[in-house]
Amino acid sequence: MCSVCGCGEGETDIEGQARNHRPPGHGHDYGQEPAHAHAPGLSQARMVQIEKDILGRNNEYAAANRRWFTERNILALNLVSSPGSGKTSLLVRTLLDRKEHRLMAVIEGDQQTSHDADRIRQTGVKAVQINTGKGCHLDAHGVGHALESLAPEPDSVLFIENVGNLVCPAAFDLGEAHKITILSVTEGEDKPLKYPDMFHASTLMILNKIDLLPHLDFDADRCIGYARRVNPRIHVLRLSAATGEGMDAWYRWVEANRQPGAPGGG
Amino acid sequence: MHELSLCEGVMQVLEDAARNQGFGCVNVVWLEVGALAGVELDAMRFGFDVVKKDTLAENARLEIIRIPGQAWCHSCAKGVEIRQRFDACPHCGGYQLQVTGGEELRVKELEVE
User: Fold this and answer.
1) ipTM score for this prediction
2) Is the residue at B20 inside a domain?
3) Is B8 among the domain residues?
4) Which end of chain A is flanked by fewer CB atoms within 10 Å, N or C?
5) What is the arithmetic mean of pLDDT over A158-187?
6) Which distant-in-sequence residues (6+ apart) come within 8 Å of A118 by Cβ?
């Protein structure tokens, strides 16, 4: 393994390039002597205090990514949701509406296929696809490699579309400024309670597909109330990427969250 | 199933410690897992048994230390224990809670030789 990702070497790839390098010291080369070679009755067992976070390695990569973004004044946003919430449609509309005003780039995470990156590239905005194989989330190391090939411009906004999964991506910091959970009104309004970790970790909840509300039993206010139970500080935007309703508030949110004093504001 | 990834993280911690502290075999791993860490303990135990094969922890036993969820209730102005993130304050029933503990995912100590 070259990162904390559990998907196994050779299963994660970025645009078809297998991520299979081995960092120095990776091998299991801790001594050649047979185990338990000590004399019976003279146990060499000892206690070792460790106090190390399991996610420490991922967090180191995430901190490096965060420094990289800060140096270039890039706003990185980590978009998380269930499959089918309309993440990619939201992104496509955002890119088409905003590409004249703001430099943007996209990292797409999916288990398989480059369909989403292909959809993004059709807007004229550059994108790179990370396929996680059997992995259920993006990790900071993979994102760091994607940045090398994507090379987002200084002062740009980078959208990272995570693997569709409301569980695992909550634990993995990618170095983003904010996690954004997208929930569509065709899903259950109690998802914030069913998957509290993700809503707790997010700065913003986007309630998507609100044009469908007249046809559904979805109680938006109740859903928002649930989200605020797990995260009293979470911001909420209601919009429809299909009709465009509410999209201006989303664009204002993105601009307001770019770092202060940023040059090249549009 | 990100528990498998987390177990890979445990192995990295063990391998780093083995290099730095000069041991070749791990007998017991004590792992602190907070109640709000989003970890399924059975999946963690399963994942540990999978990833420890052919490593310095091949024969290691996993001991999980549960850390309760803790929060500060802004209404009551005191610390309370919670089981899940969406729990109400056990005293006032409100939701103005700030999580203060129970998110730990940490290798605490090892028995090694």
Assistant:
1) 0.81
2) yes
3) yes
4) C
5) 95
6) none
pLDDT at position A14: 77
Which chain A residues have a beta carbon less than 8 Å from that of B6? Answer: 4, 6, 54-55, 171
Query: CA–CA separation, A141 vs A49, rounded Å?
Result: 27
Across the interface, of A168, A197, A232, the residue whose CB is closest to B95 is A232
Q: Is the pLDDT of residue B98 over 60?
A: yes
- If one counts the domains in chain B, the total is 1
Residue with tokens 């140096």: A71
Amino acid, res. A256: A
Among B5, B17, B38, the residue with its CB nearest the CB of A197 is B38
Q: Which residue of B has its CA nearest to A47?
A: B111
**pLDDT confidence of A26, banded at 50, 70, 90?**
very low
Burial readout A81-96 (b: 16 or more C-beta within 10 A, e: otherwise): bbeebbbbbbbbbbbe
Tell me the residue type at B18: A
By the CB < 8 Å criterion, does B85 face chain A? yes
Quick check: A117 and A127 in contact, CB under 8 A? yes
**Inter-chain CB proximity B1 and A55 less than 8 Å:** no
Flag whether residue B18 sits within 8 Å of chain A, measured between CB atoms. yes
Average of pLDDT values for A149-175? 95
**CATH code of the domain containing B42:** 3.30.2320.50
pLDDT in tens, B7-30: 999 999 999 999 999 999 999 999
Question: What span, in angstroms and rounded, lies between the C-alpha atoms of A71 and A80?
Answer: 25
Judged by CB atoms closer than 8 Å, whether chains meet at B15 and A200 is answered as no
Best residue in B2, B23, B28 for a mutation probing chain A (most A CBs within 10 Å): B2
Structural domain boundaries, residue B55:
3-69+101-112
Whether B5 and A228 lie within 8 Å, measured CB to CB: no
Q: What is the mean pLDDT of residues A186-198?
A: 94
Out of A7-21, A30-44, A215-229, least confident range: A30-44
Region A36-53 average pLDDT: 72
In a domain, B32, yes or no: yes
pLDDT of residue A260: 56
* Amino acid, single-letter form, for residue B110: L
Domain boundaries, chain A: 57-256
* Residue A259 DSSP label: P
Q: Is A212 on the interface with B (CB under 8 A)?
A: no
CATH 3.40.50.300 fits A57-256, yes or no: yes
